[in-house]
Amino acid sequence: MGLFFSRNIANFLLSSFFSSQKFTSQIENVVSVVSARTGRHRQRYNQEYRLVVGCIPYRYKDALKSFSVDNIEVLGISSQKGQAMMFPKGGWENDESMETAALRETLEEAGVVGNIEKRLGKWYYKSKNQATMHEAYMFPLQVTKLLENWPEKDFRRREWMSVEKAREVCPQWMKEALDLLISQRTELEQSLDEEETPCS
């Protein structure tokens, strides 16, 4: 539910992103062009599970870009109907790839774009307000641009926060996704450091 890009504009922007790995300044002009898109007639399901995709947007605190718990911040957004904080996510529709849907939801809800990374995993959860069961997939997203205007600006608050704060405020399944991101990237950084260390 909520406001979404028109289908043609969203597809153009996302295909441009995948081909060039960068957006131009024109995106900020296009972000304000939204259309009401309601209903879930394109929504993907796996039996009784509604398929959901999203991202954990993050940025480095310093220019060295060394991945560690102390050197990154993650972007949380408020829910539309309350103050609960979470990472951007939403329905995966049947005319999108998983990555395209995750990027679209992140752009619509959090107003950020960036480099999407390898999928973290799969989680199952139940809506608090509905009986719907969800099958969710999450991706890390290294943020390259924070937009001033985005489709859900008037409905959500966004906040850069430490990993520790995110662990306190996010739903349990998102905490697990965040912990997996941290552990995978920490292991990768350590293995790269070992490769660069000369043998004595």
TrEMBL record:
Keywords: Hydrolase, Magnesium, Manganese, Metal-binding. It comes from the Eukaryota. It holds the Pfam family NUDIX. GO terms for molecular function: metal ion binding; pyrophosphatase activity. Its cofactor is Mg(2+); Mn(2+). GO terms for cellular component: cytoplasm; nucleus. The keyword Magnesium applies. Residues 48-182 form the Nudix hydrolase domain. The keyword Metal-binding applies. InterPro entries: DDP-like_NUDIX, NUDIX_hydrolase-like_dom_sf, NUDIX_hydrolase_CS, NUDIX_hydrolase_dom. Belongs to the Nudix hydrolase family. This is Nudix hydrolase 18, mitochondrial-like.
